[in-house]
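Why does this matter for the project? Reviewers at the last site visit asked to see concrete outputs rather than summary tables. In response, this paragraph embeds two records directly. Each consists of the residue sequence and, immediately after it, the corresponding structure tokens. Nothing has been edited or filtered.
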Amino acid sequence: MNDFGNLFFIGFQNQFEKDFLERINPCGIILYPENMNDVYKLQINMERIYSLFDKGYRFFISSDHEGGQLETVPNIFPSPGNMAIGKVGSASEFGNYLAHMLKLHGFNMVFAPVVDVKHEKSSHVTGFRAYSDDHEIIKMRALEFIRSLLDENIAPTLKHFPGHGKAKEDSHFTLPVVFDFDENDEDMMIFKELSKHVDFIMTAHVMYPKLDEVVATLSKKILKGILREKFGYKGLIISDAFEMKALYKNYSPKEVIKRFFEADGDIILIGDVENHYYLIETFNSMVKSGELDIELLKEKVEKIKKIKEKYVSDTYPTRFLSKIAKQAIDFKLDSPVENPSFLIPQAKNLSLADTSQKDLKYLRNLIKEEFKDAKIYTSSSEISNEDTVIYFVLDKVENVNAKRVIYIFLRDVLKKDVEYVNPYSSKLISIYHVLQLFKGEGLL
């Protein structure tokens, strides 16, 4: 495993890539809506991640599920959000609920709470994500929320240090500059008081000229001088996403990587790793060329590993469902399956309570994720007699003219004198394990 991968926290905006995780071995993964459009896809991606845990990997698994306008994890009831909670209360109740649901779904971390202060001219990116314009209310609500997360051993993340609330611009698109912000600013004192309760603080891609003439994420004066030395923070400093325009429009890849680590940052967040893999390639080249302090990086990796031990376990409460799906499968295969094509059904529900259409709506995409170049048919008449066909059967077995046919019986056990797989289920998690069987992985 690549230990220096621990210095990166990565996200996939589109296709989740298990092989990429195995190769890079990042500190953690942030799941975005595209990775979990619904609970079906979330369950499968969690199984992909935890199948790497079975091999000895350990990742933080996080999301931006703050509540309110940033809610990403399916199957969690919507919250009115931080501003409403700041006004009414119930931060502990929401924290208890959110932490419990995150834990059940396989998460061990969340990029929350936001402790930025709402100001009259705050950017929309702060908006109702802030608890209040009152510093004391923010500290109180955030601490209640943090304690609730920690009760379920979910790692909270304070963001965005030293405070994004006074920024009038959105750092996703430009570099905000905040002139009325000094070493005694009340917005920053919130972080001082809460920092001893957390192991993660996320930086702001904002410049504060009275503190330093460089963006906070890259500022040694701000991260090391204030957060580490003045506030006494000993946890991990994680950047906001490195591909945000506040950074890459103003600094080169080498400059942001070198400055961040030298400023005492620990973990680089890349939210869109598919399109910004060059950052990892740049880092690797800098390690090889000696442009980075290797001993400093090693110290950071050891600190990250120790904090992982606090929060990251090798399984999660609802993974037993995936294990049932895997262990229930029986099959008869005459030989390994190579270069298969697939014949998939047009699912119909048997009753108002039947879930077959929902179960199978993602089947085509799932097959494509596991067998990228495979042909997928919806009619037996399209099939070539040279194909090896994996035939998903709902109720009726049609005649398929192919070189080899393997039957997957989804709604009934229809054993015949044929090659078959019986998952005893039409759920996508069961089909996922069937596909692993054909790939030669996850053999029962």
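We now turn to the second protein, recorded in exactly the same manner.
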Amino acid sequence: MDIEQLKYPIGKFQFQDSYTPAEVKSNIQIISALPSKFINLLGGWDDDKYNTPYRPDGWTIRQLIHHVADSHMNAYVRCRLAMTEDNPVIKPYEEQLWAELPDAKMAQVELSIQLLRYIHLRWVLLLNSMDEKDLARTYTHPATGRVFRLDEVIANYAWHSEHHYQHAFQLAARNNW
């Protein structure tokens, strides 16, 4: 399998100019389902499996799960900021450096799975409460200066959810786990 397929098992994210209500609803459902999908996939895994990189020179599954929790926690906060402020400038973080911190390399995967479960419960409640006007609210990412609409954020994190789930799923399939 080529390295690009291992890096991007579902392809790279593509922003759209707009999202229909049905697309937004589908994207929220994808976000909502992620914790359960990880629980079902990783339920019987041991430390050897969690410490396996999903690709050469990639994160271990342990780091990947902690990354998803970190990323989605930040996304939840960013959505709340966009809902309560006019186009706030969000705080970026160095995800690669976060993945190298001791807790991302040593903590039990279950801690981040549970964090994902509860963050997603709150986040999905917020996302499902949004109307068309809310979905058009924005925040600015200071690293790029790009303004993100919340409907774009939802689509991006639906992709992010499936992107990282497929890293773990395809590793399991390749290794017959």
